[in-house]
Every structure is written in structure tokens, then in C-alpha cells.
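Subject: for your reference before the review

Hello V.,

The reviewers asked for a structural picture of the protein, and I figured it would be easier to keep everything in one thread rather than splitting it across files. Below is the amino acid sequence we used in the manuscript, unchanged from the supplementary table.
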Amino acid sequence: MAEKNEPTIKEDLPIEAASETAAPKPEEQLVIKKPSRLRSFFSSKGGKITTAILAILVIIGILLGIPSTRYAILGTFIKKDATITLIDSSTKTPVSDATVILGDKQFKTDSDGKATLNDVSVGPHSITIQKNYYSDTTVTLDVWILKSAEPSQIEMQATGRQVPISVINTVSLLPIDGATITAANTSALTDSSGDATLVLPTDQTEISGTVSLDGYNSAAVTITVTSEAVEGNTFSLTPAGYVYFLSKRTGVINVMKANLDGTQQEVVIEGTGSEEEGGTQLVATRDWSYSVIKARRDSKNAKLYLLPYGSSSLSVIDTEEASEDTTFDIVGWYNQYLIYIVNGQILKSYNADTNTITALDQVVREGSGNNYASEYFGAVHILEDKIVYAKNWSYSCKTYVSNACAAYSDYISGKNATITSVNPDGSSKQTLKQVAIVPAEYPRISSKAIKTDQVIFRTSSGTAPSTYDRYQYGSLSTASDITDAIFVLPKTTYFVSPSGDYSFWYESRDGKNVLFLGDAAGNNAVEVASGTDFTPLGWYSDDYLLVSKDGSELYILPRQDTSSNSVKITDFHKPAYSWPGAGYSYGWYYYGGYLDY
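And here is what came back from the structure prediction:
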């Protein structure tokens, strides 16, 4: 029997619960479990941030999976250009100059009916297209992330009459791309074939309009409202610009200008009545940026006047040479440099851009009274970046000693005839050759320009055979291929285009002229017209040729195909002598009756 104070063990309780202080058995030692690393990470501050990011990504992924929310999100970040094309639902021709409205942006279709919508967010967009005499059109434009926008072509329904119109170049007769035809509060653009369809109201048979394009003179036109292609709806545009010319139609010699198709002729500088019939000259630069006028207006002798392109007033060139007895001879232009000679003695250049004058060279005179020797300039040639010329000596003698001219023995002996080159700005002057003058020979140097890049110099000395030198590309060398028979052949004048890429010249054959185009040096000739009465005068840009007929009619031809068309610009005052031009210059200088130029 158990004692009264002995604890009782309840058999229905676990042994562990029966005694908390019972010592564990060795094999039942308490094991403490550590938390996992993943649980620790997510419990940390960094883990909580990562959890938040992952949650956001999950939400974004869900939203991107839904089309309606996908583009709303991506459109904020991704923008693309979308191109649409509009065509007439009936004629299937492009609808140009239509307005495409996307939100607060507007775009215009080009001559091909295309419009490029810039920086459009990806996703579907509603666009509205409007143009007078067409029904408004609204379509959905889907700008996809990985493929081009759709639809690519949209048809528009015309509510007026579709009138086919063509626009061509007045001079070349070639189609004009991108010209705008405007009439009845609507417009259309010509395509690369020069064609456009202008939809006009049906209640009129004729409508006034305009045709315009940068680089051309705008034209007022009358459009026949018909869906048929009629000759009367082919219009022409004339290239913008005008030429200056001399005219005596009012009884005095004026400076006038005219558009390239001969329209809008007007007097720019009125003559004073003192202008000489044969001594008044007008010479333009190759690009027509400047013209020089040689005219006697208010003095005994003619002066040189500058006429900038677009101006209607003259300014005197070289006011330092203000004497009433001063004479000027124009050599020609090299770009903005006018080359000229004062009193037959000073070779000068005038920079029209900077209004500065440079003395390039000067001849000298020795002796007095009627017994003297003097230097003189031969023909002055303007090549690319160079002025090239010869200087010779002449003498005057009234006093003889033992039947010999005193001036010759006193002044000519020991002198040199020279060939010189100099840049238009006066730099890099160089004596290329000297030929000693001795009493028994008395050599003279004459010259001829050959094509545009070379000059042939002939040295004649008494009874000795002539010798020849060729100036080309900055140096002088013996020209063994030139003979007297070749040298005296008629000179061909080559006109270099404003860019320097082309040259233009002619040859006379069987009483008619053959026109040629070539490269800047006059090589690689291509015959562009034959059996013509035209004579080259120069260029108007690199696209058009200026020619004369009968010496007093000015025409313009297209460079691309001179046989296709010619447009008469005007009649002009014909000076008493020819002014053929020379290579890089539209002028030349001839001094001395015995020089063969």
C-alpha cells in the first residue's frame, strides 16, 4: 500500500508532460533548428524591397498580357513613325495635299499621296483625313511594336470632279515633280511624272488657279473642269531668275532685265544718252551674281560700273582712276574678281565681294617725247585660279642716228619679253619665261587659249622659226605638237559652267553651227545640236545654256537636251564688235593689232 504523500502518475498523460524536470535520456538530447536562408532574406530589408519589385513585375506582366492595357503602358515609352497612302477610290490616283489629323497633330500627304506620321505611340489610333471636295474619312491606325503600321493604303471618296493636270518646265519641257496646283480652296501636288489630280466643284466649267514651286516663277492659270486629259490643262513653269542685257529700244542704251521666258522685261538702269554705240559693254559673272557695265554716262570716257544681281543701281568701280582721260578695258570675270586694264598700262583685279582693288602688274615706258620704248600687255587669259599673259616691247622713233632709231638702241636693247602668271587676288605672281630682246631679232610673244585649261604662247623672233610653249596646270612647257598652221586656226571659245563641271562651245560646219558639251577642260565632247544658227554666250546655272542668234537675239536652252526646245528671251543691243568669252571668264581682252587671239 502506498504512502499518503507519494505522487501519483497518471497513465493517460505523456511521460514528458508528467514531469517537466525529468532528465532526458542521452539519445533524446534537445535539437535546436536554424531558420532557412531564403526565409531570412525575405525577412531582411533588402528582401522586402525585392519582394516589392517582384510583385510589381508580376502586376506589369499581368497588365501586359491584356491588349487594352499593354499599349497604354508601352505607348508611354515606345514611339514610331507610321506611313499611310491615300488614293482616290474612283481613279486610284494619289490624293495629295490632304490633311491627316491624329490627336492634336496634323500631317499633309505628298505628291504620291503619302504622309509620314512622326513619333506615334504604339497601339491603335483613330485618324481623320480631310480634303475639300472629298468626304471626310476616319480609320483606325494600328501602330505595332514589331511590324509596320496598318492600314498602308486608304481610299477616299471624291465629291467633286477629278481633273487631271500636268506641269512641265518651260525651257526643258520636262515634267516637274512637286509643283502645287491651287484652285477653289483646294490643291494638289504633281508626282514625278508631272501629273496631279485636282478635285474641283462640278458646277463650273473653268476655274482660275495658280501653279507654284520653289525655284520657279509662279503662274496664273485657267483650269478646264473636266475629267478628261486635255491639252489646256498642261501648264508650264519657268525657272526663277532673270538676265540683264543692253537695249536701245527707247532710243538710248539702257540696262534691262527679263525673266528666262522673256516675260516682265523692264529697264533697270536708264541710259543718259551719252552711251557710245559700240563702246557700251555688259559682262556677267558665270553665276550672274555680278555684272560689269562699261559705259560713258557722265564723263568724257567710259567708266566701269558694278551691277549686283537683284540690284537696280550702279556703283563706280575704281574711283581712284578718276581722270577724264582714263580708259578701261575689260578682261573678264573670274568668280567675284573682275580683271581689267587701266590706260593700257595697269592690270588690276576688283573683288566685288569685298570692294577691294589689287594691281596685278604694270607695264613701263622709257624715253621722252617721240623717242621712247614701251611695254604692253598681250592677250590676258583667265584660267582656273590663274591670270596668264605675255608682255612685249614696242618703240617709237623720230630721231635717227646713223640711220638707226635712237629709241631702239637706247631702250629696247637688253629688255625681255615675258610670260607671267598671277592669282586673281594678286598672290603667287611668277615670271614663267623671259625672252631677251636683241636688235637683230626683236622677239614678240603672242598667245591663244586652247580649251579651258591651257594657253599656247608663240615666240616669233625675226626670220627664225617660231617656238611654242604651253601653259597648263600652273607650269610652262615646250609645246612641240603646235605648228604655225595649228596656231593660226580660228580660236574656239569654251564657256565653263558656274560649278566648273561642264564646258560649252561650238564649231562652224557648212555655214551652220554645231553645239558641244564637255567636261570642264573641254574634253569628252558630246554633240548636242547641229545645223543651228545659235552661238554660245554662256550659262544660267548648270542646267541652262544661253545662246545668241544673229548677234542680237538671246535664247535659253536646256543643258540636258538642247534639241528639245529653245525659248527666246529677248532682242538685245548688239555692240559693234563680238564678245566671245574665254573659258572661266565671260569676257576677254585684245590689245594690239598684230596679236593672234
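For the response letter, the relevant points are probably these. The two ends are 162 Å apart (CA to CA). The first strand starts at residue 79 and ends at 88.

Happy to draft the paragraph if you're swamped.

O.
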